[in-house]
Every structure is written in structure tokens, then in C-alpha cells.
Amino acid sequence: MLARKSCSLLLPSSSFTKPHVLHGVFHYAILLCLAVSNLSGSSGFRLDGGGCLATSSFRVLVVDDHKLFRQFICSTLGETSELQIIGEASDGPEAVQKAEELHPDLIVLDIGLPALNGIEATRRIRKLSPESKILFVSQESTGDVIREALGTGASGYVYKPDAGSELLEAVRTVLRGERFVGARFRGHDSVGGSDAIASRELPTEDACAPLQRTMEITHRHEAGFYPDDASLLDDFAQFIGPALKAGNSAIVVATESHRDGILLRLHAHGLDIGSAIEQGRYISVDAAETLSAFMVNGLPDPLRFFNVADSLLLNAAKAAKGESPRIVACGEGVALLWVQGNPEAAIRLEHLWNEMVKSYDVDVFCGYPLGSFHEQDNRIFQRICEEHSAIYCR
Questions:
Q1: Beta bridge partners of 296
Q2: I want to staple 134 with a disulfide (CB 3.0 to 4.6 A). Which of 149, 154, 198, 219 is the partner?
Q3: What is d(CA 193, CA 138) in angstroms, rounded to the nearest whole number?
Q4: Which one, of 284, 289, 222, 292, lies nearest residue 258 by Cα?
Q5: CA angle in degrees (0–180, nearest 5) for 343-345-347
Q6: Alpha-carbon distance 284 to 2, whole Å?
Q7: For residue 355, how many other CB atoms are within 10 A of its CB?
Q8: How many CA atoms lie within 13 A of 122 on its CB side?
Q9: DSSP letters along 211-251, please?
Q10: Rounded-to-integer distance, Cα 65 and Cα 384, Å
Q11: What DSSP letter does each residue of 269-290 carry, written as one string?
């Protein structure tokens, strides 16, 4: 897809529904911020003296109903020799059962679990395996939920979009016997702070909604993984609509049928797409044709790519009329490369867009078919995630 380095999903306020599990619109949605570059370097688990971790192995149980997210956690923690993944669970009852059987040192679990939510599961686990430390990793961002979660006796809370940068630090802090609260929630008295790091003001519920994130990062390059076309098109429309409504420009790089589907959804939201097209604020191009303009020997040619992207972005920038003119771009060109069995080209293209957005005021959202990823693709999936600031899975 045509993607950009940082993707601020500028979802609407009133007429556009917030697409996230927080409000029940996305059932079991996942938000990860896989800034895996922050995971590189020393994990700091082997510490000595003054409140440091022992060198023996810590046994970890991972609980999340989304397989890809469990794989991400297991892969991340598995790179540290002091952590041993002893089990996985995909729902609340299974988490309770395995906690009782295994008595792990640490349980990393989500809140939005099927059959029995993570908070209630934790209450039961605390009775059956009281020595197990609990670290929540969840997309829930409201103060009431976080307070209830920590009120169970859990030792930490990480917001899923920040897991890429905070997961290892959170695990390390919790295993030291200290409390960890994600950076965006620290400093709020009613939520409680982290013993490890200074704080920040708790965002409002609206500011934390998954596709209506705060603007701490000037640009975002995010990706969504979808089980069907309908959910993909819904999110593309949700991403594009608010920008057009504000007088900004949008670029869509997709197949013909998907471009038609996006137009229908935007029209259903009451947007005058005809005017936006006439003004040059809505640019829709075919994904396959766009790829053919810069692919050479199965890989994206940097010079040709920058020429194509420059043309699209410059035209969009000239047409933008908002108070703070911006461009949003979404598409599936990269996904086409993946489906065609060319993951290396897909990763290189994502990287090129990361470079491109350093020169443009652009937010980008990439769409991938979830069904095209299989267990053996875990490493490739992680590499794709590394190129994005956050990941969404339906």
C-alpha cells in the first residue's frame, strides 16, 4: 500500500462512529504499538544488587484471545533468556485453569477475553495462585477500567498500542516487585503511578479511542489486519472521512472494487465526494497500476517510488484547505505484494514510506488481509509490524 511513517487516524467526532472495542464497535479489537526498534538493545533482566532481578528463569503464562498478539508477546519475551514461556491461553476460564496448574511467576493477560474477562479471571487466579504476578496488556484506556484492573492486586498495566516500547520494561519492573503503569496513564492519582518512572496526565476517553489517538506523535504509520473486505473498507472510510470533512486531502491506493466500496461508505456518511474529487482533495488510484510504476525486478525502486509518491503527495497538499492542512493516505499496495508471495518487497515498500513522510505532513493507514498470515509467517509479520507505529486487528 502507499503508506506513510506515522498514521494519526483522524476519526470523526459526531457523524463517524469511533471504531474500537472500548465502545463495543470493534469486538476484540487489538491495538499494538509495535515500535520494535524500542525493543532492541539490552533488556536489562540480569541485574544485581539494589532491587535487581535474580538470574534464574522466570516462568510466564501469556493470555490473549488473538493468536497474533500472543505470538508477538511470546516472541518478544522469548528473546530474553531469563523468561520462559510455559503456557498460553485464549480465554478467561483457560487462563484460570492454567494458572492453577502451572503457578507461573508472571501472567501477562488481556482484559477483553471471551467467556470470562481478564479482571474477573485475575480475581480467581489471585485465590488459586497468589504468588503469581499479574501484568495487564490491554486496549482499554478508561480510568475506571484501569483502576478496577489494578484493584485486583495486579502489578502492572500496559496499553496495547504502547506494548512495543513498554512491554519489556513493564515485565522487568513487575518481576522486581514494583508496580508499572504505562506512560500515558502515569501521574493520575486515581489510577496510580509506576514505581519506576515519572508520570504524565491521564488522557480522556475520547483522546484514547483507538482510531482517534492523541497527537503526541506528529505522524503515524499504522497497519490494520482484517478478516474480510467489509471491515477493511469500514476502517478506510473512518480514516478518510474526518480529514475530508475538515477540508484536508485524502489519497486512496486500492483495488477498483475497494475504491468503489470506500466511495459508497463516504457518501453514506454525508460527504460530498464529488466536490472533493473536483477540488483535488480526494485522489483515488489503482494499487496494482501504482505498484507497476516503481517495481523493478520484483522490488520497489527507490527513485521511481519517490517520484510516484512525490507527485501524489504534492497534488494532495496543494488541494488541502483545512486550517492546518494535512494529508491522509490509506491503501493496500503493500498487501498486494504480500499476497503475491513477495514479503521482502512489502517490507521494503513500508520502509520507503517511512522515509517519505519525513518530508510531508501525512498520516498513513495500511490494510492487510488477516487470513493471508499463517503461523509460519510469524517472523515476517513481526518485521512488517516493525515498520509501523501501531497495529490494529479486527
A1: 299
A2: 154
A3: 17
A4: 284
A5: 70
A6: 11
A7: 14
A8: 28
A9: TS--SSSS-BEEEEEESSHHHHHHHHHHHHHHHHHTT-EEE
A10: 21
A11: TT--HHHHHHTT-EEEEEHHHH
Residue 25, class by beta-carbon neighbours within 10 Å (0-12 exposed, 13-18 middle, 19+ buried)?
A: middle
Q: Amino acid identity of 62?
A: V
Closest CA to 129 of 100, 158, 160: 100
Give per-residue pLDDT as tens, 13-62: 233 333 333 333 233 333 333 333 334 333 445 444 444 444 468 999 99
Stretch among 123-127, 151-155, 201-205 having the lowest mean pLDDT: 201-205
Q: Smallest Cα–Cα separation from 52: which of 175, 154, 194? A: 175
Q: Which residues contact 304 (CB under 8 A, 6 or more apart)?
A: 293, 294, 296
The pLDDT confidence band at residue 213, using thresholds 50, 70 and 90, is very low
Listed range (17-26, 96-105, 225-234, 285-294) with the worst mean pLDDT: 17-26
Do 199 and 179 contact (CB within 8 A), yes or no?
no
- Per-residue model confidence as pLDDT tens digits over 231-240: 899 999 999 9
State the Cα–Cα distance between residues 69 and 67, nearest whole angstrom: 5
How far is C-alpha 18 from the geometric centre of its chain's CA atoms?
15
Backbone angles phi, psi at 140, to 5 degrees: -70, 135
- Give tens-digit pLDDT for 252-271: 999 999 999 999 999 888 89
Handedness of CA 305, 311, 313, 316 (dihedral sign): negative
Q: Give 60's strand partners.
A: 85, 106
Give me 89's grid cell: 491461553
- pLDDT for the residue numbered 379: 77
Question: CA 143 to CA 201: how far, in whole Å?
Answer: 11
Is 109 in contact with 63 (CB distance < 8 Å)?
yes
Which three three-digit cell numbers place residue 314?
504534492
Q: List, as own/partner pairs, every contact residues 175-182 make where C-beta atoms lie below 8 angstroms and the sequence separation is at least 24, other chains included.
A: 175/45, 175/53, 175/58, 175/105, 175/106, 175/133, 176/47, 176/51, 176/52, 176/53, 177/51, 178/51, 179/150, 179/155, 180/135, 180/155, 180/156, 181/146, 181/150, 181/156, 181/157, 182/157, 182/158
Residue 321: all three cell numbers together = 484547505
Full-model pTM = 0.51
